[in-house]
């Protein structure tokens, strides 16, 4: 079963810089595929999360926060169809924030920051430990999905665009189809 690794707060503003493609190459024995520069990886070979975490930390010069989930968790999120209508609105971008764990209690949705018609971030729901939000760029940035989610849920988290999640989904689906045939 494939896994998906999301590193938190890497390659942002010169902080915790590393080369994701080089890390993926170093972890080739696990069938690691790098997705972009933000620290998103698909791990195709079955490996325990604790072993995977240790292997990644051993190869980096810093200790990143990591969210690791199973491929089926991510596939189930994408099969949900939550963002189908939102993806078509040009000024609004859908995001997925991955929490370190499933929160004990979900707040009432939607959550808007700032509240009202001038919202920049609207958190619309949660699926397990995946928090779904919409981001609308305004003249000045007052909120970003990751900050809003971490504050509201009081848990470390990392955020990816829906397009990144969709890319991961497509690869996982292709791998699943290849296994079946």
CATH architecture of the largest domain: 2-Layer Sandwich
Structural class: alpha+beta
What gross morphology would you assign?
globular
Give the strand tally. 9
What is the topology, as strand order, of the major beta sheet? 6-7-8-5-9
Helix content: 25-40%
| First and last CA, distance | 16 Å
What is the top-level CATH class of the largest domain? Alpha Beta
Summarize, please.
This protein is an alpha+beta fold and 181 residues long. It has 5 helices and 9 strands; from the N terminus they run βαββαβαββββαβα. 30% of the residues lie in helices and 28% in strands.
Secondary structure: elements and pairs:
Blueprint: E1 3-8, H1 20-26, E2 32-35, E3 40-43, H2 49-59, E4 65-70, H3 71-79, E5 92-99, E6 111-113, E7 121-127, E8 130-136, H4 145-153, E9 157-161, H5 162-180
Antiparallel strand pairs: 1-3, 1-4, 2-3, 5-8, 5-9, 6-7, 7-8
Structural write-up:
This protein has about 180 residues and is of the alpha+beta class. The protein is about 30% helix and about 30% strand. It has five helices and nine strands; from the N terminus they run βαββαβαββββαβα. A five-stranded antiparallel beta sheet has the order 6-7-8-5-9. The chain has a four-stranded antiparallel beta sheet with strand order 2-3-1-4. The longest helix has 19 residues. It is globular. The model has no long low-confidence stretch (mean pLDDT about 90).
């Amino acid at each position: 079963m494939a896994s998906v690794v999301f590193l938190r707060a890497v390659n942002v503003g010169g902080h915790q810089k590393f080369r994701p493609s080089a890390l993926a190459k170093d972890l080739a024995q696990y069938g690691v595929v790098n997705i972009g520069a933000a620290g998103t990886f698909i791990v195709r070979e079955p490996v325990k999360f604790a072993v995977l975490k240790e292997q990644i930390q051993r190869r980096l010069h810093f200790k990143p926060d990591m969210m690791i989930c199973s491929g089926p968790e991510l596939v189930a999120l994408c099969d949900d169809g939550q963002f189908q209508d939102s993806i078509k609105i040009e000024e609004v971008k859908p995001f997925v924030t991955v929490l370190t764990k499933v929160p004990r209690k979900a707040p009432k949705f939607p959550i808007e920051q700032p509240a009202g018609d001038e919202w920049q971030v609207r958190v619309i729901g949660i699926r397990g430990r995946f928090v779904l939000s919409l981001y609308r760029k305004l003249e000045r940035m007052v909120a970003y999905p990751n900050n809003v989610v971490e504050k509201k849920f009081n848990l470390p988290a990392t955020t990816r665009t829906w397009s990144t999640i969709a890319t991961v989904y497509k690869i996982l689906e292709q791998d699943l189809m290849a296994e079946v045939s």
